[in-house]
């Protein structure tokens, strides 16, 4: 065994294994440099930059989503501000309209028109005065008939008395209008107040005359439905 052979086996780490087998040449140093897979030096030389080893995590991408989120936040802030301004303007207009209804509006007084008296035309002497119309004579209506009333009435004025007959019969007859009750009375002018007998409103009635009396008063009284009275009286004397 030559001095250039390694005394133990070299186990490469994951990702650092050479792509071809290292064959030691004669001499003390190799004639070519071994480059691990990944294209960069293990120590991070000046030519390789900041390339991480092959076994590390992939590099993080640039922060483009963070920039987009900031732009979206700015746009939303502007839109929210515009909406807030529009809301304030709308509330202000509503308050102005509400207060405008209760504000009294001063009305200017309307000028009054003064009426000037125009001179009335004087009557000319040539105009003839019209005569006043004469009042037509009016006839007074006849007074209404008393209710009730006697349509007919007959009664004797004397009584035939003799020494043989102490009484004499007298016959009365009558007819009436608008009467509902009737009475005949002796020695009275109101047969209803002092009745001799209640009789029909139209009848022929016979009554005895007392010949001991020189004269006697007989009355027939009529009454209508309203309570109005009508009287008919006669004085009978003895012969």
From TrEMBL:
Domain of life per record: Bacteria
Residue segments, region Disordered: 1-65, 101-152
Transmembrane segments: 72-96
Chain intervals with Basic and acidic residues compositional bias: 1-11
Keywords associated with the record: Membrane, Transmembrane, Transmembrane helix
Keyword Membrane carried by entry: yes
Ranges of biased composition (kind: Low complexity): 102-119
Comp. bias (Gly residues): 37-48
Acidic residues composition bias: residue spans: 124-133
Protein name from the UniProt record: Uncharacterized protein
